[in-house]
Amino acid sequence: MTHNLGTFFSKEDKGYFVWFKIYYTDTPESQTDIVNLFASEDMDIRYGYLDNTEYKDKGKYVLFARVKTDTDINEFLGKLKNLEVVLNIEHHVLQDSTLHSLDYPLQLLGERAIIARATTFVDIVRIIKENVSDSSGLLMVSGLNGGIHAARYIKTKINIDKNNLADILKELVTAAGWGLLDMDLDFDTLNGKIYFMNCFIAESYGESERPVCEYISGFFSGFITESLGEPVHVREIRCKSMMSTDLCEHMISKAPQGIKPEHILRGELP
Question: Which residues constitute the domain of residue 214?
Answer without folding.
Answer: 116-265
